[in-house]
Amino acid sequence: LQVITGGHYDVDCRLEDPDGVVLYKEMKKQYDSFTFTASRNGTYKFCFSNEFSTFTHKTVYFDFQVGEDPPLFPSENRVTALTQMESACVSIHEALKSVIDYQTHFRLREAQGRSRAEDLNTRVAYWSIGEAIILLVVSIGQVFLLKSFFSDKRTTTTRVGS
Predict the structure, then answer these.
(1) Buried b (16+ CB within 10 A) or exposed e, 22-46
(2) Domain coordinates of the chain in residue numbers?
């Protein structure tokens, strides 16, 4: 589980077995991992909740693995140990699975960073537009104020009894 975008990057998560027994429950988590062995067959339910932050949309990445990977070289009908080439293939296969996990992790971090950068870019653009409007209003106000200082106000005087 990893929250990629939205709010404070946290969600509630719950996992239930087919009988409705809660196996896992965490509140306001940004990133977490949970491993368990299923005790029985059936439909397991997991739920992500965002009820404490209803106005913020969130993007959540989750990944689950069911069962063990089949062996690269089945041990059925084998009398001898693995050859050096087969052992090297098994270790390379394990290393590649680790690389896939790292790539997934870094892709998620990149997506999270991109989301933050785009949000910051939007905020900076709105702030710049606001500042430009304020600057325009103030400059027009100053022009009219200075114009009023230098304008001639003609006053009419009347003389009485000359």
Answers:
(1) eeeeeeeeeeeeeeeeeeeeeeeee
(2) 1-66, 89-150
